[in-house]
Structure formats: structure tokens, C-alpha cells
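Record type: ASSEMBLY
Status: queued
Input:
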Amino acid sequence: MMLNLAPNIADPDDFYAELVNSQRNLDEEQALRMNARLILLLANHIGDRTVLTEAIARARAAG
Amino acid sequence: MTNHIYPKFGYLRSKEQADGVVKRHPIVVIGAGPIGLTAALDFAARGQPVVVLDDNDTVSIGSRAVCYAKRPLEIWDRLDCASPMVDRGVSWKVGKVFFHDQLSYQFDLLPESDHQWPAMINLQQYHLEEILVAKCRANPLIDLRWKHRLISLKQPADHATLAVETPDGIFTMEAEWVIACDGANSDTRKMVGAEFTGQFFQDRFLIADVAMKADFPTERWFWFDPPFHPGQSVLLHRQADNIWRIDFQLGWEADPDAERQPERVIPRIRAMLGEDAQFSLEWVSIYQFACRRIDNFRQGRVLFAGDAAHQVSPFGARGANTGVQDIDNLAWKLAMVLRGEAPEALLDSYHEERAYAADDNILNSTRATDFITPKTKVSRYFRDAVLELAQHHGFARPLVNSGRLSVPTPYATSALNTPDEDFAIGEMRPGTNAADAPISVAGKPSWFLHCLGDGFTVVTFGKATDKTGIAIGPLAAKIIRVGRDIEDPSGLLAARYGASPGTTYLFRPDQYVAARWSGFDETKIIEAMLRATGQDSARHPAGQKELAA
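Status: finished
Output:
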């Protein structure tokens, strides 16, 4: 499987707001810790090692 | 500090030093630790006389290696010394991992029943060495020489010349082969000028043997960031004689000289066990570790094994356990070369197979170290996230890494393997160590590994042959037919080997699978035996005829 880079989220503005609001009352360390948990949860859901490798490489390349 | 009485084995002047004659020995082992002593026993079991040199005259001070895994116990059982180790030691298979004061994860090393040996035993290294020394002393082929320090080693064309210092001065010995088992700081390695490179870790650990009566279960307990030792990790193991082994991570800034003082150690233990705990300190040490290995396990006529060849972090008990497996791999090969049954090139496969295993061990122990000691703030957040999620969600538990405990590395890519023709036989691929299983022989219960013996063994399921052996030149294998020579009443042997009628395995003298087929074919078995002894009949068509001649 390839990493899906096409739009895939039904209500993008709503999702983005939910993501940002979920960290509204957290300090930087708390937010970074939450991000770590979120990445692990999502990575496990994806599971596919090829997709994960591609996502890591794309995120690292920043854009 | 210690209550343990360490034996003094005593120095004896050798006849060759007294007589002033230079004697050539087939095998000289440097170092009488667990690996050197195992080497002596394995060579002697294969009929080779061995001289062992050690610069000291006692056993390991402190518990050091502590954990011995199932595969080394199987090897020591072949050398008839596993039972006293298991009887003296503490068997365990459950590990628990705590984060702060909460259980994060628990694992079982041997979830499958019907194995002869436990997944792991804990035993102070001094007890283990005493068992091995007693076994060596009872063997007339083994000459243990204490207070013999190797001071120089040279390699002329067909042997090694050793200058050895004893309380009676310096004398010269010769050896056809030298087995260097003299530990991570091996002088032998420096004498041959071998490279020993890898990664050092900027961390220090305090390890303590503590005598106490305690009601912790016989399990491996590992804490990340516990309230009694904040920000660091702690490991607890039960050993024999109510001695407990505790490892405290201290961090890179710790002062090793100050930290080993009892007035610093005792409060750490008291914080862990409670104010009222009754205990006494037996032994304390501070260490910093590295993951590195020698560039080649074979340096001419010097063969390196154990920590002299590779060093790993302690998480996973991969040091001594790997070293014992080095010897398991080396002993049959060198014995065959000494007997003229295999070409010297077979010894190069020792490097190929054991360097492959060492690299696997180093990879595993480096990953554990990176999990236990995160290098950056953000990697610590990931580590903590895994530990938090593991408390509630199964998915995160396999990510928790407090050390992946020692299991044998299959020699998946070894040139000694005969590749599979038929991929439907199951998991016991060429290059894998033989799985044990309960069997019966003449109606009496036994274990499969016991019937494999010291040489090559063909095991065939069904009635494909009436033969009891197979030979080509000096190479021979006994044939075991399941249903004739051994019975498989539980069916577990067939299940573990994916066997159906006709399935045939060729095992090497170290109980590794050399080849397997869905039918019995003598020509293929002979080809596989040649290949497994470094004489590839496919590449050298004449090899088979020469050997038969």
C-alpha cells in the first residue's frame, strides 16, 4: 500500500479545529507528550510498515 | 562485605615449565570464565585435549552475568552440567515492567509447555563457574592451569607461540589453535592487533548483590522512573541463596568512585525496599557499557569467543549466553579440522555465523538501551507514551523494550545451509537450532535433543529407509527413524518440525538444522553434509569422489 496523500478527511475544518482545541489548555510539554501518544495510536491503526516508513520520511522532509 | 567464600584453586608448576621443554598443544584456551570453561568441556567431549590458562586462581567475584537462557542450558546439558546449574539456580519465565508505580506490561518467555529446560535461570556467576570447574577437573583431557598469564603471542606459519608468566617465571608454549576467551578487555585481542569497534553509551549503572529475605516473586522486575529512583531505571532479579541482584541506572554524571561506597548504595536500596527492610550488601560494582565486536572472530590460528569477540549492553542477558553459543558453534568445527575430516576453511564459517549472531545481539541490545535511556527530550516523550499506553492497550505492549531476552539467532544466510526445495515444512528452517520435544525411547520418556548426539544426525519421519547410518569418507551421520528408534507419543515432535511421512532433517553436530526435505534421499543428505562441513560438492564436483576415495 502507498501513503494516501489525497484528501481523505470528510470535514477538514472540523477535524483541524478538534485537533488544535484538544491541546488548548496544555503547556508545551503536555502537548508534546500528547502528540507522542497520538502518533503511536495512529501508527498502530495504520500498521502497514511501508506506509509508516513513507509517512516518516515525508514528515521528516517537511513538506 | 561479602559472605560468599570464594574457592582458591591453587597454582601448580606445569611439567613443561619445570622441564624447560617447549611443548606443542592442539588447543590452548585463554581465560577460565564461563566461556573458556565451556570451551574446554566441549573440546574434551569431542576427544580433544585442552590446556586452559587463567591469570587468576578463583571464580568470578560477584554475580556478574546472572541470567542463563534455555539454549545455553541445552548446550551445557550436552556437556552434562545443566542439571546442577538448574538445581542450584532459580528458574523463571515471567517478566514484569513497571512505569512509575504501575504495572505497564508483563511477558512470559516460555508460553509453550513440554520443554526440558526452563526459559531462564538466575545463578551467580561464581556458582556457575564452580560447577564448570568441577566438571573440567574430573575430565582427564582438560588441564586447568591457574596463575598462568599470557604475555605475548606470535603466529609462525602453522602454530602459535605463547609466552606465559607464572609464579615460577616466564616459559614458552606452542599451540596449533588458541581460543581467546579472556573477556571484553582481552589482552589476546590486543596481541593480534584486531579491531574492536562499536558504540559506547553515556550512562552508568550500579549493580549490587543484596542478601535479604524478601517476598518478591521469582520474576524479572524492571522499573522505568520508579518513585524510589526517579528519572532512572531499576532491575531486580532473584538469585540462589536469598541473594538478590539489583541494577540501578545512575546516568552519565554519576561519580563511579563515590557511588560504589556503601553509604551511597544502602540508602538507594532502603528507598526501594522500605525503611524496615533487613538486608546486607554482598557485592557492588559500577559499570559503563559498550556495544562492539571484533572485525574477524578468526585471526589466523587464534579464534575469539565471548566478550573477547563481542560486547553488548546487559539488557537481554545476551553476553554470556551468546558466548556459550560461540563455543557450541566452534567446537565441532575445530574438532573436525583437527581430525582431518573437514578443511580449515570450515573455521571461516565460525566467523560468518557468529559475527551474524553478534550483530543481531548488538542490534537488539542497542535498541533496548535507546528505549531505556532516551537520547533526547522528545524521544523520552515517545518512550513514556509507550509505557502509559501499554497500561491500558495491548497494542503498545510489544513496543515496551526493557531488554529482549536472549534467544538463539538463526544462521539464516549461512553458506553451510542447504536451501529448502520445499517450503511447506514449517518454521524449522536450515540454520535454526533444533527445537526440543518430549519423545520416548524403548517406552521410556526422554527428550529429542538427547538423541541427537555429538555428530551429524539424520532424523526421518515414516518408513523411507531401513539404514541406521550414512557415511562418505570420514563423514558419518546416524539415522534416527521416528517410529523405529524413537517414538513421538504426543505428536509434538512432528508438530514442531512440520513433519509428515517422509520428512527428513539433517542436524549438524551443534544441533542446528543443516537441511530438510519432504522425502529421504541419500545423495542429497551426503551433499548437504559436505556443504555443512565447508566442502561444497556442487561447487567442487570432485570433492565427493576425493572424499569417497
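Annotation: Chain B touches chain A at residues 377-378, 381-382, 384-386, 388-389, 395-396, 399 (CB under 8 Å).
Annotation: Residues 540-549 of chain B have pLDDT under 50 and may be disordered.
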